[in-house]
Write a structure and sequence with these properties.
single chain; alpha/beta; 4-stranded mixed beta sheet; globular; disordered N terminus
């Protein structure tokens, strides 16, 4: 049986790319859409192409092209051809006797092409395309269904029919289904923290207990750092989730969080949810009051932890769906009979996002990372997914604050 391979394009840099522009000016409607976000060439001097769709666009012109690259547009075939440079500054150089060295080579291995489409009425719309040389990494022969994907601008081939590690057993290609993929069937340029894999520990006490001692835990963390370096990364960025109020019955607050953070060499700290630091004392506690209390905690964390602190924005908190609906609500029962956050409207959530963004940007030397609770904690009342009450409003709040309202 042939190996069924899946190609994945990976880059370490996030590219802010506008793929679709659709505009209407007076009675003129026009749009310009690239079929792919990136164009990857396998070897120097090689060429690849991609399609595009255009409505009421009479011409498409590359306005900016990375040094050494060539881009041509065929309006009849609706294709864009991209050709990579043949030589680069770091190529080995050998000069024959009497031969003079050529002028400085400034060609680049990757970059962004900017294209402008013009309508017959004189209107214009722009978009961009990431281009790069792409090394092919063949992982189809590895006896594992868990692969390290860590190189920028690479094409990975994996055998998705393998059942597991250290086995030659495979599944029928007919039984293999894609559970998740991006619209363009690529992993969209994931970014590592300082070139390191990001590993976050939620419960540091249980983390240490699992290894048996502080020394054994530190040794295990160091081994993972070494493996990451051997795999081509710059190491592991260890992040610690800190909290003061236990939520689940099995949670216990470590008495020495700061000591563990420093002794184990964590690179940063964060929080999972506001409730871990600012408990809702009332049955219905105002969302904005807990937000303000958390902002004060954030100041304390920045001052005490000694490592970058990545703030949290909590969408809401209501674990009542997990309670016995036939039983009276009583906080004495403990979780999930806790207070809830009221008035966590999309507008209040958006304001919390904006406050967090403004505080991050106000510190020129601070981190540019935050986390949001949560994508789909439906039974704890904290989710970004669309619902029947607010539709897409919470997702739109994230878009409006961090990406603006334009496409």
């Amino acid at each position: 049986m042939k190996n069924l391979t899946m190609k994945i394009f990976v880059g370490l840099f996030v590219v802010a790319t506008v793929l679709l522009q659709s505009c209407k000016k007076d009675s003129e409607t026009y749009s310009f859409l690239l079929n792919e976000r990136g164009a990857f060439v396998e070897e120097p001097g090689g060429t690849t192409s991609l399609g595009f769709t255009a409505i009421n666009i009479s011409s498409v012109t590359p306005t900016t092209v990375p040094q050494g690259w060539s881009v041509t547009v065929d309006m009849n075939e609706r294709r864009i051809s991209v050709t990579a440079p043949t030589t680069f500054p770091d190529d080995p150089k050998t000069l024959a006797d009497g031969e003079e060295e050529e002028e400085e080579n400034t060609n680049v291995r990757f970059g962004t092409v900017y294209l402008t489409g013009r309508s017959s009425g004189g209107s214009s719309v722009s978009t961009s395309l990431y281009v790069s040389l792409a090394e092919t990494v063949d992982l189809t022969g590895q006896p594992s269904n868990c692969y390290i994907i860590n190189k920028s601008n690479a094409r990975y081939c994996i055998d998705v029919t393998r059942k597991g590690e250290d086995t030659e057993a495979t599944m029928s290609p007919a039984s293999v289904a894609i559970l998740w993929e991006t619209p363009y069937k690529v992993i969209e340029f994931p970014k590592l923290v300082d070139g390191k894999a990001y590993f976050s520990v939620y419960d540091v006490q249980k983390f240490v207990e699992s290894f048996g001692s502080l020394e054994a835990t530190k040794a295990a963390m160091d081994r993972l750092r070494e493996k990451a370096v051997a795999a081509g990364l710059k190491g592991v960025h260890w992040n610690l989730v800190v909290w003061g109020n236990p939520i689940l019955p099995v949670e216990k607050v470590p008495a020495n969080t700061l000591e563990l953070l420093r002794a184990l060499g964590f690179d940063s700290a964060t929080s999972y949810v506001w409730i871990h630091h600012c408990w809702p004392a009332d049955t219905c506690t105002a969302y904005n009051s807990v937000r303000d209390a958390y902002m004060a905690y954030w100041d304390k964390a920045k001052a005490e932890y000694g490592v970058p602190y990545y703030p949290n924005v909590t969408m809401g908190w209501d674990p009542s769906p997990r309670t016995n609906q036939q039983k009276d609500w009583n906080p004495a029962y403990g979780y999930p009979y806790s207070g809830i956050l009221c008035d966590n409207t999309p507008e209040n959530f958006r304001a919390a996002l904006q406050m967090t963004k403004d505080r991050l940007l106000a510190d020129p030397d601070g981190p540019r990372i935050l986390n949001i609770n949560c994508w789909n904690e439906w039974t704890e009342g904290s989710y970004l997914e669309p619902d029947s009450t607010h539709g897409m409003k919470y997702l739109e709040a994230v878009r409006d604050v961090f990406a603006g309202t334009e496409p």
